[in-house]
Specification:
mainly beta; 5-stranded antiparallel beta sheet; 34% strand; globular
Length: 231
Amino acid sequence: MLRFHAGLVHYALHVGWRDPPTGDAALPADAQPAIGAGEHAQLLAAFNGGFLMGAGCLPCGVGGMEVAGHVLVPLVSGMTSLALDPNGGASMGVWGRGFPQAGAAVYSVRQCLPPLVWGGRASPDVGDISAWGATLGGGDLTARSAVGIDARGNILYAGSMSALPSDLANALVSAGAVTAMELDINPEWVQADAAPSPGGQLSAAVPDQNRPADQYLSGWTRDYVTVLAGP
């Protein structure tokens, strides 16, 4: 579990080399598949994004994605959403259910499934493994990750290389999450890295994760979020 304190950090949402589709969108440096030198100087952590856009493994769909003001995949009502404003401030809610607030400046949005935690409680569907994505080999336990927000606006990341959806939900609720969404699952995709100071050497934050801690510096195939020093 990682907790990022509101007012002390800001965030950027990056696309991957292969997903989401970017079309002809002119994305800025802090949204590219690799972390540039300017962003690296502020970098405190990075963590994986959500399911593959258009993933057909769930009847509810995955949701949509907006990056740096460009809607790459249309946003979907009822999907849990991590939203960033133009200054990199983060908020979370369920799209179309009072979120985002009227007049809110929305710059980037990552949606992924209906909420894993809503109103400070685990989803009533948390025990339905099939509702949270297809696992390699069909087993219930697999690498899983999730992101949440607490009542103070702090962002929480939870990840494990062997967990049930309920494990993530219960851990996030215990940490004070009022809203949370599952992020990507399965060993190839779950990754969080953290540095002791801005621009410092990154180390793996999820024990036994598959990818090297500097993977996002050289770029990655899927979207991810960077955590940067400063409000």
